[in-house]
DNA sequence: TTATTTATACCGTCCAGCCGGTATGTAGCG
DNA sequence: CGCTACATACCGGCTGGACGGTATAAATAA
């Protein structure tokens, strides 16, 4: 059952990533926690780069699956992909494990441009089925940027954000269309 | 002239960081480019952690100096620290070197919580002299989050943002006070 | 004044551990 | 017999950093 082995490797690698960070993600560290040997690992992933790519792809798939789930359950077609993105990024309960994985993945992408590119591809793939994104709508972009900023703040604890502030931010984001109007008023 | 040696080490380390990323920043790599030996490096920075902290502090000082410069030249007191932050993060011409350093610093902070904490301290220190920040104003926070999201997008090239979109974003950010009104309308 | 100690700044080598990866098997299966 | 899916042993490079020096200059004591 080679496929099972593969996913076991990937799941374990993500677990290691969550616990020890990207520097702790070594081939040996994965092998230690797994029911088979280093040879098996290197059989399925010929080198560490391949493993890392596998991990990113695995995370990317989960990410996209979550977005798709939110997307299809959204009754309104217009802008649903953006809304699903926002919910995925900011609404999900943030466990310590999520934070660790987020940090590690961010670090990995920051270190290795190839991984960043790969993650970007997942982001793009998840940005589908939405006329606003297709049109490159300004407001959807802004909402995404704000959500990304909030996500990063969550990862690093940059700003201390109160629950009320967070709720306000979330509702503003979900409203989602107001910023361009605002711009026109100011201009 | 021990102080000069110290700053030479730090500058060189940042240079290495920009060129080879955080994984390329080894003690030997710094020593190679410097007029003295490894012993000297270890004399000024007893271990690698100390060197990394020094690098973060050095970057933090530059960052804060830039913000202070923008702050004092801003005629309007109200909200100047937030505006200075925005300008520093989004207005500056982004060279490839800036991107590399940003990536590397981000990675370093994502990997090592202690460094993240240290950077956070610099951020806090730069967030001074502003009644809105003191009051934890929602709009200033939102502008910062959006700017952070844009900064990250610049680092990774996540979104393709046209010059017009960028200009629009910048002006919206500088306007900076409208979002709370908007929230009330929506609520 | 001079001798002695102490602290600073720096040099250059060597090592031990870790880590990615290779090389060489082998057991099962079609 | 050859291919897949593993196991085991081993290696060499890199890296952090320990260590044992040296040169200089200031502090201290005689």
From TrEMBL, chains A, B:
Residues annotated as DNA-binding region? 26-45
> Has keyword NAD?
no
Q: Which UniProt keywords apply?
A: DNA-binding, Transcription, Transcription regulation
Q: Where is the HTH tetR-type domain?
A: 3-63
Quote the PROSITE patterns the UniProt record gives: HTH_TETR_2
Q: Which InterPro entries match?
A: Homeodomain-like_sf, HTH-type_TetR-like_transc_reg, HTH_TetR, Tet_transcr_reg_TetR-rel_C_sf, TetR_CgmR_C
- Please report the name of this protein according to its UniProt entry: TetR family transcriptional regulator
Q: What is the lineage of its organism?
A: Bacteria, Pseudomonadati, Pseudomonadota, Alphaproteobacteria, Caulobacterales
């Amino acid at each position: 059952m080679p496929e099972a082995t593969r996913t076991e490797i990937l799941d374990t690698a993500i677990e290691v990533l969550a616990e020890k960070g990207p520097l702790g993600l070594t081939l040996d560290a994965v092998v230690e926690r797994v029911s088979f040997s280093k040879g098996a690992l290197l059989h399925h992933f010929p080198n560490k780069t391949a493993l890392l790519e596998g991990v990113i792809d695995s995370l990317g798939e989960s990410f996209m699956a979550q977005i798709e789930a939110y997307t299809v359950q959204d009754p309104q077609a217009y802008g649903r992909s953006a809304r699903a993105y926002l919910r995925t990024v900011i609404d999900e309960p943030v466990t310590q494990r999520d934070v660790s994985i987020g940090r590690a993945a961010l670090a990995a992408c920051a270190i290795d441009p190839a991984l960043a590119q790969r993650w970007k591809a997942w982001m793009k793939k998840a940005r589908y089925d939405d006329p606003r994104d297709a049109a490159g709508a300004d407001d959807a972009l802004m909402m995404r940027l704000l959500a990304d900023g909030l996500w990063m703040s969550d990862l690093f604890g940059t700003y201390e954000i109160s629950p009320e502030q967070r709720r306000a931010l979330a509702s503003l984001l979900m409203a989602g269309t107001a910023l361009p109007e605002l711009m026109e008023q100011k201009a």
